[in-house]
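S1.2 Input.
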Amino acid sequence: MRLPKFDYSDPETLDQALDLLDSHRDDAKILAGGTDLLVRMKKGLLKPKVLISLKALNELSYIKKQAGCIKIGARTPLADIISSDMIQNEAKALCQACEKIGAATIQHFRGTIGGNILQDNRCHHYNQSEFFRSGHQACHKAGGKICYAREEADRCNSTCQSDGATALMALGADITLARKGGERTVDLASFYTTDGINPFAMESHELLTEVTIPVTEAQSAYQRLAYRSAIDYPIVCAGVLLKPSSAQKDEIENARIVVGAMGRSPLFLTQASSSLKGKKLNDTNAFKKAADASMNSASAFAVHNVGATLEYRCAMVSQMVFRALEQAAAAVEA
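S1.3 Output.
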């Protein structure tokens, strides 16, 4: 499979990149590592007229603590996040998620945190070669009017399989979107549209520049299931955060449970999360109930589009959430 023809731009500064985005808008795509973008282009899923490379923008590659938050540049390699003591100690779920993204060579040389957040939603029926798709009626995501993943669906049911986004949502992260002449900050949980065709609440002339994670006394954990641990996208994953009470150190003051790879966006499960408030950190029965509630909530969004049966994936939601909760609780008590 060959890449389609395109013009290539290599800006040297962020301002130059934003100028190019403002000029080309829908005709342009951002090239960071290219691990998702170039594959989609080779399959004929994308045919941008212009690629704007971020290769020279070292100003977008950093990990630092500022004003009670961890700030990560969008172009930061996954390997830098994995090796960061700050991330290991204060945002463990993100470190665990990045360890599972691709192989070591991708983590070191290609994969970036911004690229992982912005990877397009996937579907086993859609992410095929152009030749394969030519023999089938176009689905919603390809401009048609059917969904192969869910019969009689009136919309695209492609799935968000981003490890990083699931972990970051559990950590309560914000992202910064820059454009020519300004920028805005968005809660990651509000960034997803739940539209499988256009999954991000982001304009074509905007660029993801930074991820911000609040630093608290909480502990986090991430669990995922995939056919191959170092190559495949997750078929189900879960990120959790547990904050102990300042008055009762063995009690949970706040919890966040996020399930990924089950819907059009990572699913922040409010009811399951709130059920843990006031529970003891060693209350495995409460964890099991929250995990089962997570399974019930996430099951409503699951479709046949990631190469695994619905029954198996739904059952594994409970397992991934329970294991993540146990791991985060153990870290709080350590």
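S1.4 Remarks. The chain has a mean pLDDT of 93.
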